[in-house]
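Lab channel / #folding
Pinned by the channel admin:
"Please post every new chain as: sequence first, then the structure tokens as a reply. Keep commentary short and put observations after the output so the thread stays searchable."

First post following the new format, from NK:
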Amino acid sequence: MSEAGQDRILVLGIGNILWADEGFGVRVVEEFHRRYAVPDNVTILDGGTQGLYLVNYVEDADALIVFDAIDYGLAPGELKLVRDDEVPRFTGAKKMSLHQTGFQEVLSAADLLGRYPKRLALIGCQPLDLEDWGGPLTEPVRAQIEPAIRLACELLVQWGAPPVPRTEPLAPAERLLANDIDHLNYEMRARSA
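Reply from TO:
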């Protein structure tokens, strides 16, 4: 628990923005951060492909929301929420990249350290294209950014940490991604290439 007795909550996006739909989790957390302010007990993190480097963040969280592209064998762009004890079962889904294996290791390491989050939610989207090096999200996956954010907001409300829509745009220094790899700039370049 945090100092004020509130659960520490981590909202985490993982994935690789260089492989089309593989960047779904990063793009969702980026947009969530752009649109919402959160209470002090909530941390928003672009985990990218950091793998085991995320253990410290996960073990410090009482509750965890993860956005990711997951091959569930569903229709492209289908969103699926998996919670708590079901989350480790997504290892049965086809692994698409090294970061997924790494994130499973992160959860296992946190468990071995006795610091596994007591609440866990995975908001996964079925990808369409993982082969387009440098390409943007495909349309069916991009269309799930908004529904994924809504799911996360519902979870945060349930967990006592409601997000609040921002009334002022984020300053460039407050954005999760810089150097023109934020969603808007990156996709503009990908479309013009």
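NK: The first helix runs from residue 24 to 35.
TO: also worth noting, The mean pLDDT is 83.
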